[in-house]
Amino acid sequence: MFKKTNDYKAFIVPHTHWDREWYLTFQQFKLRLINTFENLFNTLENDEFTDFSFDGQTIILEDYLEVYPEKKEILKRYIGEDRIQVGPWYILPDEFLVSGEATIRNLLLGHKIADDFGKVMKIGYLPDPFGHISQMPQILQGFNIDNIIFWRGIDYNKTKGNEFIWEGPDGTELFAAHLPQVGYCNARSLSTDFDEAYDVIRDSIDDLLKRETSKSLLLLNGVDHLEAQPHIPELSKYLNKKFPNIEISQGNLKQYMDYAKETVNDDLEKLKGEFRSNKDMMTLNSVYSARMYIKQANERCQTLLENWAEPTSTFAWLQDKKYRSNLIWNGWKWLMKNHPHDSICGCSIDQVHKEMMTRFDWAEQIAEEITNENLQYITNKINVEYLEDDELALTIFNPLPYEINENINTRIKFSKEITFNRVKVFDDNHEIIHQLKDYGEDIKIELDPFDTPTLIDVNYADISFTAENIPAAGYKTYKIKAVNDLTMPGEYSSDIAHGSNYIENVFYIVKANNDGTVDITDKINNRTYNNCNRFSDRGDAGDEYTYSPPLKDKVILSNLSNCSIENFGSSEVTLKISGSMSLPEKIGENRKSRSCSYIDCPLETKITLYSKIQRIDFETTFDNKAKDHRLQVEFPTGIDTDVVYADSHFDVVKRPIAVPDSKGWVEKAYKTAHNSGFVSLSDDQVGVSLLNRGLPEYEIIPEKQNSIALTLLRSVGWLSVDDLEHRTIEAGPCLPAPEAQCLGKHSFSYALVLHKGNWAEAGISHKAKQYRAQLKTKTLKKQSGSLPEEKSYIEIENEKIEISSIKKHESSEKIILRIYNPTEENQKTQINLDFDYSNVYLGNLSEDIIEEIEHEEGLYLNVPSKKIFTIIVDR
């Protein structure tokens, strides 16, 4: 594969690993960052000190220059000379808890900043995430990075050496180097006593040689927040003399990687898929449920930016509106500042996570305002000049490039002069079934760029209906007519029905049991699933990193006695189940059992069925008054299978349900795992898929009929502790984190889909994305305009092809469409573009053109299994 040599080379790479916030806040670490830069500048005045790697990040440049902008030129000089290495990332992310598109934005921005400073380090450097996603090879290769240096997730007993080929699910390969068990610090804090330093280097080299696959040896001189050691050049010369068979020098990661490729063994091992093993190194997977409110906020922001702000900016740009690229990036930057693993994982001190919530708020507000401006701009161009004085138009927007049916709940505001007690809803002059939920008086705010806001009294109607055939990546307009003396209810026939303890539509019957669980009948497949939506609570003597039940645990199951019907009408009906769970107040003083004193924690679930919608929505609220516990919700499936499918990053991953024997591991094997939006079990006939919004931790429980369990809340009081049954060593400093107990009220959104076949055959990936994105509406009065009442900008005809991005090209007047095929089969699709365009290209993730796509007869694509395609459309 590569040229062979018999000569060993060891590269001492000075570096720092920079956690922006963790056991201190960002501002507290910032002073240390300033000191690190100032020391580095002094050290680099010695020309023999050739290299310093700044952790693969570029955000540290912004952080430093925010205080010392006059230092930009010296940074550009050292980076341009390749003496300070930065990039390719903006921040070092957690891989699982951020979206695939967030990872791409991270690399786009990291490359842009590093390029501006003179040079990008083209190394896929990921030294500390808690495991690695399956599609990282394809993501990095999309930025012309053909290698990766990483830590965690590998089982040393099942791998042959330090270097190997990592193959992604689509076949894309990276030359991979896995760091030793000690991590990214096997040459840290080298003494100025060169004999002492020799002992450290000798031991590290011996360790590396045990797993040698090339003649290139990596000695990482640094660890968290350490500064450059000025004596490294002299120490390297000394060590070079002490090791006659190894050439030792100060160097950088690229030099190590280049020499490894040059000298690697011919029979290099190939590994495939995600890396999640915690046998030899902790992967700390319980961070998926630490501070769940952070995961939910992140999901909201990612959904708004990816599914609303960017696509609607593109649609409005096609109608000649300015594309607010800088403001969109501003939103992304606030969000990505929350994506380092100590931040998004929820494993820092309380003050860090308080500050994160402000960044989430800002990212959310920016995305919402951009979206609202775009929707209003498009709405203002729609022609509805036929409207009468007592009529309004309601435009429903769908950001996803496939036609959908979805329930709409919205408030319609008529002028004060229009009085009514009912409304009628028309789809192309055909009256449709709807539900009037409320009406009365309200206030509307009208903004004027040249005057102060005006408050206008209005009459409102709150309505609900199933909007059908909403065009792909487009909109559809309905007419709403104010009516007096319309006789209701009973006017509309519907598939919605209910009794005192059940609700029903064309797909399902949901019946409440005496204990508050529900039995769900799948009418299409003639199956009933019993005791669904049961809440299970266990003690947690762990910390923010690790769920660790006490030795003497008490498992509490919900028993909710109150049942009622709400919102019954022709378009939806809700079954409300409520009560309290009596939970132990906390862990006992010895941390070996749950306390004997109990406290009531109110819990309520609203289960809603919609007319003609094949999905059961659950909205659960929980007032957490207890400490040191974990709350899950369980859905028994009765499906006989030994594998589970989970939504991931440009992929749906297949995982075994069985948990390996973890005796002797540094960390016990986790029963829980990660999902990005849905979890699915299926057999040869039917499937059960559980969707969610921002609840990334699931568990399959074989002893409970292969129940799918979602973790809703995990309450702990420590950043890290050292007395766990499930982990043998500390994961971080032993500091209190009382707000990680997550006391107070919480809300959780999840949904169930029962279906024929597996997740791919049932279109579950689409359904999950639709559930997360939802729809948005705008109302408009009579007006003339250039746009029709109904329009699709982009349509993908194959429901097994997924979309991840619709946006403007970063540096030209082109459009980016990113699609991927998460299935295990190749897929063909047609893409319909309802706007003027010329050339179409296949590009990479960095938005460079690879080749032109022929499209004279239409845009037809063959998308291989697990492949990500970036399509570049020239307007």
TrEMBL record:
Residue span, Glycoside hydrolase family 38 central domain: 287-360
InterPro entries listed in its UniProt record: Gal_mutarotase_sf_dom, GH38_C, Glyco_hydro/deAcase_b/a-brl, Glyco_hydro_38_C, Glyco_hydro_38_cen, Glyco_hydro_38_cen_sf, Glyco_hydro_38_N, Glyco_hydro_38_N_sf
GO terms classed as biological process: mannose metabolic process; oligosaccharide catabolic process
Gene Ontology MF: a single term: metal ion binding
Phylogenetic lineage: Bacteria, Bacillati, Bacillota, Clostridia, Halanaerobiales
Superkingdom of source: Bacteria
Protein name: Mannosylglycerate hydrolase
Keyword list, A-Z: Glycosidase, Hydrolase, Metal-binding
Record family assignment: Belongs to the glycosyl hydrolase 38 family.
Gene3D superfamilies (UniProt xref): 2.60.40.2220, Glycoside hydrolase 38, N terminal domain, Glycoside hydrolase family 38, central domain, Golgi alpha-mannosidase II, domain 4
SUPFAM superfamilies to which the protein is assigned, alphabetical: Families 57/38 glycoside transferase middle domain (SSF88688), Galactose mutarotase-like (SSF74650), Glycoside hydrolase/deacetylase (SSF88713)
SMART domains in alphabetical order: Alpha-mann_mid
